[in-house]
Amino acid sequence: MAFQRISMDTSKHLFTLHGIDDGEKPGLNRELRRSQVESFLAKLPTTENDGDCT
Fold first, then answer.
1. What is the C-alpha separation between 54 and 42, in angstroms, rounded?
2. Which of 4, 11, 46, 52 is 20 to 30 Å from the Cα of 22, by its Cα?
3. Containing domain of residue 38, as a range?
4. Are strands 14-20 and 26-33 parallel, antiparallel or unpaired?
């Protein structure tokens, strides 16, 4: 699944990822441990940064 936006809530050990798909609908709500974040994001399709990241 491709996501238009992904946001990440961080804490010391757990990260919660929220993704919005191309239809502006929630498509991702997942909790990952710090050690799992990089491998999970690497498996997602690439996205293009439009320069509007904050």
1. 21
2. 11
3. 5-43
4. antiparallel
pTM of the shown model: 0.66
DSSP summary character for residue 44: S
Please check whether residue 50 lies inside any domain of the structure.
no
Contact yes or no for 26/20 (Cβ under 8 A): yes
Q: Tell me the one-letter amino acid at 17.
A: L
Alpha carbon distance 51, 53 (integer Å) = 6
Cβ within 8 Å of residue 30, ≥6 positions away: 16, 17, 40
Residue 38 neighbours by CB distance under 10 Å: 9
| Per-residue tens of pLDDT for the chain, all 54 residues | 678 888 888 888 899 999 888 888 898 889 999 899 899 889 987 766 666 655
